[in-house]
Amino acid sequence: MSEPITTAATRRTRWAPRLLVLVEDLRRREDRLALVLSLVIGALVGLVVVAFILLTGRLAAHMYPAGGAGWRRILVPTLGALVTGILLVRFFPDARGSGIPQTRAAIFIHDGRITLRTVVGKFVCCAASLASGIALGREGPSVHIGSGIASVVARRLGLSTAQVRWLIPVGASAALAAAFNTPIAAVLFSLEEIMGDLHAPILGSVVLSSTTSWMVLHLVLGDEPLFHVAPYHLVSPWELPVYAILGLVGGLGSVGFVKLLLALRARFSRLPKSTLWAQPMVGGLAVGLLGFVVPEVLGVGYDQVDRVLGGDVVLRFAVMLALLKMFATALCYASGNAGGIFGPSMFIGAMLGAAVGRVAHIALPTTTADAGAYALVGMGTAFAGIIRTSRSRATTPSSCR
């Protein structure tokens, strides 16, 4: 009886090292696959997002020629919203929305599936919408596009459902790194907001794809930062209470903006479905009318943010721009226009921060920094309040230089 038992034990002992070798070999193959796919997806997504940025800029330059905007400020956003509304309803229904909720749904509900049709629709509709002056941002749509590219590549290669899912945040981080020129914040965002886990095992792949995409951006467009920020520092400990007040103002502004957006969305959702194609035109017309009087309301407004960060702040104008941008962005988003709220939230925060900083500098000129420093902090404050997660929001403004 002891001989068969001994033989079986011997066989198990002999096969154990072989199994370990096979498992280790499989793990190495998977690691190599992850490495290659991270590089390929990072480069591909970087190129697509750069093309998206260039196309949007070229279209905007044709729609708003220098010194000759005039009535175009009303007509272009209205017609742009109408065209994108028709495209979204008739041809690209899955390309609606900012792109972030849709990306999360793809991971946790749809087995990582984002179709090529959705990617194309998001690219075309958002480029047309943003170029026409709609008060939304490119970052959310870029994340959806990048995630979609990763999904398409993974499914074309016949990868498993689990592998397709973990490639989604790889594409998302690559897209955000190129769209925002912030590779560190892109990594944190994709893990924190898309995956919901900062300690996800895909961290290495996410970092690699984000870095690759960021390098592509710099190779094509150069080393120009998104914003130019002067070297600010804490002038006095008395500034700390002012920054606390700024946090309160930014938080209240964020809550007000989100409540306005949700209220408007509820109103539009009660309209007949047959009007879906025309609903974006309401937002386009509204932002056009506002932009005719105050052109800074049009588009995402990064040029104005750059000026404020440089210290070019007029108190009343900053407050007015913050309020108008809140209304314009909420209405454009709620009415179904293509675009996200990342960029506008940065604009709103910069204006609120600049206003608080200007008041503080008037009251305490020798113990407070220039208003631009408060604008920079305000960007992070509103960003965190509106998007409602903290780590990547605090990192994104600090990536400016």
Question: Which structural traits does this protein have?
Answer:
single chain, Clc chloride channel, 15 helices, disordered C terminus, mainly alpha, 401 residues
Tell me about this structure:
By secondary structure, the protein is mostly helical. The chain folds into 2 domains: 17-221, Orthogonal Bundle (Clc chloride channel); 238-395, Orthogonal Bundle (Clc chloride channel), CATH 1.10.3080. It is built from 15 helices and no strands.
Brief overview, please?
The chain is mainly α and 401 residues long. The protein has 15 helices and no strands. The chain has 2 domains: 205 residues, Orthogonal Bundle (Clc chloride channel), CATH 1.10.3080; 158 residues, Orthogonal Bundle (Clc chloride channel), CATH 1.10.3080.
Topology record:
Layout: H1 2-63, H2 72-90, H3 100-108, H4 116-131, H5 139-156, H6 161-180, H7 183-195, H8 203-221, H9 239-269, H10 279-293, H11 302-309, H12 315-334, H13 342-363, H14 371-387, H15 391-398
Strand content: under 5%
Question: What is the count of structural domains?
Answer: 2
User: Could you give a short account of the major beta sheet?
Assistant: none
Provide the helix percentage.
over 70%
Q: CATH class of the largest domain, please?
A: Mainly Alpha
Pattern of helices and strands:
HHHHHHHHHHHHHHH
CATH second-level architecture of the largest domain:
Orthogonal Bundle
